[in-house]
Automatic annotation (TrEMBL):
Protein's name according to its UniProt entry: F-box domain-containing protein
InterPro entries per record: F-box-like_dom_sf, F-box_AtFBL13-like, F-box_dom, F-box_SCFL_complex_component, LRR_dom_sf
PANTHER family with a match to the protein in the record: F-BOX DOMAIN-CONTAINING PROTEIN, OS11G0201299 PROTEIN
Domain spans labelled F-box: 20-55
Matches recorded under Pfam families: F-box
Amino acid sequence: MPPARKGEKAKKQHEATGIDALPNGVLEHILGFLPAEEAVRTCVLARRWRHRWKSAAALRIVSAGGEFLAPADKLRDFMEHLLLGRGGAPLDFCEFRLGDLDNVLEDEDVLSRVDNWFRHAVGCNVQDLRFRIHTTRSQELEDLPLVSKHLTRLALFDVEVHGSFLNFSRSPNLQYLELECCKLQSESTALITFQSLKHLHITFCCLFLHMTLDSRARIYGRTRIYAPKLVSLVMKENLGTSPIFETMPSLMEASIEIANSSDHCMLWNANYWDCNCESCDNYGNTRGDSKSCVLLEGLSKAKSLRLISEPVEFIFKRDMRWCPMFSNLKNLWLNDYWCVPDDFNMLACILEHSPILEKLTLQLFSEGPEHKMELEGRVSPTERPAAISESLNTVEVKCVKIDERIVKVLRFLHVSDIWSR
């Protein structure tokens, strides 16, 4: 049969209807929304679809819930053929979800290949890479820097990474970094530079454990983080030692929740440790940071701050000895940590160092976010103390119930002329 003439071929394409009428680029974009195994299955639809999956704009590898790509050997074989078949075709988005809480990935042969799969995605010029894995231990990624001019967003779950990996100088366009349940390691007092990063989330991670023991104290080396372009920062309930943040002049908002860290008063846990509330910060002194802020100096340029801490943690109390001026701060959210002891020194100090503050929210003796009681007070412009921001006009108190502790806080606010109903 003679080949179809140009006019006949165009006529056939014109007569195509539905999804078959779409251009190849649009089909490749649509295929990217499917799990990888379903995208590959489209090869049987028609001749036109035979190799279309190889150029899909996104790759979604899902091996969770005991569904497709389980057991482990099926996942291994599929991944090896999938990546070989795709070659180096570029990716806009790539997601790995390997295992879940009920189906933990334990196969050593598969785990030994995971880093290669991760690096393959980076080599495909992926822009948005999300890697989530559930194992019996943190999956260690090779201690080599990521090299990519295309990567703009990286999200990691339950992996262990080291100092070289955290050096993103060879990924100059990375703007979003999300680390959850990860283990971060670096040399003591090392400097980690996130030169291009604008958004950083570190939650439920194990941070920078460097510890030496002597006969009297534990001495920590703190990792320093330099992120000059950071706009938003979230740190929540991380284990290990808090890093020192260098000044972040572009910071707009930050939420810091300190719980279960190594920066806590040992008196709460063991009677043998000779420590009291006044000496907690001495207990936490570290090489190179004993006379400077750990967190607050780096956060001092933010416009919105949420600072939450458990009573046993001493980092904020320690930092208040060198309390910086929060010259841009307009919205401040604190918990009851800042209202203890009853002299309210920490609360008063941070208010006095926030000259343009507009709104203060106190989350008192409550985990939130749904509070049973919410009280709102106004600041009298005529009775406002000279040390308090002239812009402060709203004070909110969120709590479970009104008890003696809440009454003490309200009394302090009232006596200080920064609360009226």
